[in-house]
Amino acid sequence: MLVRSGSAPLGYAFSTAAVSPIAAYSGKPVDMLVGLDAAGRIAGATILHHEEPILVIGVSDQHLQEFVAQFVGKHSADRIRVGARGREGYVGIDGISGATITTMVITSSITKAARRVVQSYGLPSTVSAESEAPTTVAVQTTIDGGYDDFPPWKQLWMERAFELGVVSVALVVLFAVLFFQDSLVKRTRLFHRVRTGYLLFTVFFIGFYCSAQLSVVNLLAFFHSLGGGFSWDTLLIEPVIFVLWAFVAVSILLWGRGVFCGWLCPFGAAQDLISKLATRLGVEGYQLPQPLHERLWAIKYLILIALVGLSLDSMANAARLAEVEPFKTTFVLYFMRQPQYVLWAVALLAVSAVNSKFYCKYLCPLGAGLSFITNFKIFDWLRRRSECGSPCQACASQCQIDAIKPTGEILDNECHYCLECQVTYWDDQRCPPLVDKRKRQEARQGKAANVIASDS
Question: How far apart are CA 201 and CA 329, in angstroms?
Fold first, then answer.
């Protein structure tokens, strides 16, 4: 839209959603009103509408408006990058902690839309380095050979090469653990060391260092993007999270959702470690009665249904309910938040000392969402015996998730794949059928030894 002062043209105003819509974290574009002056510079920018869930993680509309205000005075041909201050060839702007995807998408939306307007109306496309006077070089040398050939996600993948390398190696290790699980669980002490070490890695590296805690909001945003202009660029903006989701997608088909919940979820790993520490300190755990336990399972599915319903109207509203997840408080904002959010996260961690993984069992909507996909699991890797459940209840009594029915079946939708039942399965000191077999064998060997002794 041409903007005039009387009969004199001042520049152009446009909506980024109309000119260059790019799906953001919510799966929908952030719509901004941007003004360009006659020299091709950004004269003003303001947010018209968005449905980003970042409003509920300590980022306000004011923060977003302050971020957008940094574009004023920049030229449409500038290679603007979040966090690239001081980098040669780039114009750097400050980002917003905890809103990486949104700020990257806003940057791409403004710059791409501005360049399309410049190209359409023949505005100056570059600025002379000597005089900063506008020149009229065709914008297509700018677009094809520069910024648009190097989208923001590629920059982030290069910047986070170390994180990606470490996480990739860790996923290969986890794949080996799961693929050769029978050999590992027979070595009880080694298995427990490997598992404890992996849980520590998940909490401190994936969680605190990478802030790569997967969330139900990721799932909701993904499915919304499928119906509103799917873009790989949006998914690739968070490299470690993308790699983790890719691994989860594969592992669910092989082993079920329990691989993520039991090994790769930082908050779940933190609860597991707290439970183990409490047991070592002599804190007695408490399991809810089986009928109550099975009814409480339903809560996380009800939360998931509510989230899906709210997201159909607004992702921002869904994100407010998604605050039942203490993930952002713990691993994105490091407990630097309003007291009620911190208290909720700390309480959930504390209760796991007496009821292992309480949050995971009863409240986690992400786990509920992944459990539906577990129905497509191809293989059944967890071994069971005919005695399991009738009469043996050894594994069921040890399961921290209570995911083994009294009749002996493992509930794939609830199992966290900790493999403790498999440790017991191969242990002739703990598995009652193996204990009986071992004792009978020892008795036979004892009789044979007595016979030999009497003959001699």
Answer: 19
